[in-house]
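Sample entry (613 residues):
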Amino acid sequence: MFANDAGRELYRRATGRELELDMPITARWEEPARRGYEALYRRALEGESFVVEVELSRQPAVLVSVRFSPIRSPDGVVGVVTVGRDVTALRGAESALRRIARGVVSATGEEFFQKLVGSLTDVLGVQVAYVARFGADGLVRSVAVQEGAAPGEPFARPQASAPCAEMWSRPGRVCFATRCDVACRHSECWRAVRAHAGIALLDSRGEPIGALGVGHGAAFADATHVTDVLEIFATRAAAELERQDQLEELRRGERLEAVARLAGGIAHDFNNLLTIIQGTAASELEDLTPGTPLAQSLTDIRDASESAARIVQELSALARAQELSAAPTDLRASVARLEGVLRRLVGPAAALELELGNQPVIAHTDGRQLERVVVNLVKNARDALRHDGGRIVVALHHGAQGIELSVSDSGAGIPPDVLPHIFEPFFSTKPADQGTGLGLASTYGIVRQLGGTITVESEPGRGTTFRVRLPAAGQVPADDGARGTEPPPPSADTTVLVLEDDPAQRSLASVLLRRSGYRVVTAADGAEAERVMQAQPVDVLLADVVLPGSSGPAVAAELTTRHPALATLYMSGYSEAVLGDHGLAQGSAGFIAKPFTRTALAAAVQAARARVA
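Predicted structure, serialized as tokens:
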């Protein structure tokens, strides 16, 4: 009796004919659809209300969801109202989603991303699909690209010029673009793309970490369908991308830890050797006339060993095996004190700017080690500048996550393939004779040991910025009035027992102490040390921490039980920070790290004796 325009259009699409009114319903359809419709209308005329989905017979098939409702009168059912809705696109989308889901449900990592983009190009009928990751350097890099039936080329583009760049400002929403800002330069498929759709991938904190997008050579036939598909799979893609980043960070941390343990062992062995080299050279120089050939040779040996000791310090920092003395520290004052050193380091060709503010910036940290971090970063920035100059900025301010110290340069920037390796030990882009590859690695170790984080942002041609973030501290740093206090001079009646299993180390320590005015006795192990103590009085025990079958702290505990007045000083090629497994509790007794000078050893012995006086 009546059909609206949409109903007429639906009938035209299904049958290829115009709808005629006032004709039997069943006459409008050909077999076998006629018997099906006759049964449906009979159910409605018998008083049943229901919804059914039917496939109209014309190709391509049209799927319609139809509600049958009987028209009632006092005499019973007198007619039927049908309301139909075209669900062809909806069912197609659902089928497409199921096809994509079947392909990626069990995949992870690279396999997941490649299956996802492959399914998107197939199901959506687009030319290009891609998953990309945001980098700290502001670049967007492909994780997986699919062009038609074959994997596409990887790309790296500045975030602002990537397809659908406005998606970054609309987190979680699909955006469409018609411009062709594509990343691949060599692919004919990419150059033919004229329509893009993309959605930002958000991490667990809601921050964009990447993008999922598709491209086509013409306008999308069904933008709603594209939107639905991208929104549904963006969550899974984001979770997988974040998981991959976390796994890579874990692997990088494990690699660094393995190298750090190796570095710590190397540092210990080198410290023992350098103790002998430095100590012997310094001791012999005291008896020689300056300027003689032998004195000059020993001076060269001493200077070379000091250079080697600085490399060992870098290894110790990499191993996070250095002794720290954390306290509330005004970083503004610390960096300001370095200004002269930094300007000499940078040289006259480059401009150095300090943006430190006017107020104290207090962090709970080791100021001495943080100064090493600043010097290392400025030195790295200087090396990144061109020979004709440039600009280096050291900035300090309170950030949302504590205190941020940044060092920026206007240099050439770091290539994208180099950036992930920048903190790896022994990795260097400098010539072999111009770097050890330990500067940034040791800086990373120091910052981590200080409880902070360090990140790098760089783009080729636009410079580099390193950011160090440290926890803030509210306490004003105290003025240590005892900092300049010197221990009392050595006493001629002070006897020191040197407990050291290595004969060369034992001999050197004895020579240095005797030259400082002490009486010295020696022992190679705990049993011999006990015999020496029984034979004569001893004022100070100088013990190596690690001994064969025992340890310096264990021997000292036995000796001090029977000799309470015995002062104890420990020495080791390891730092105090990593000797807890050998019974050395930090701060419980004196400690001196190898290599040491005669003056430093004498001062440490006197300080140890003063603690029990």
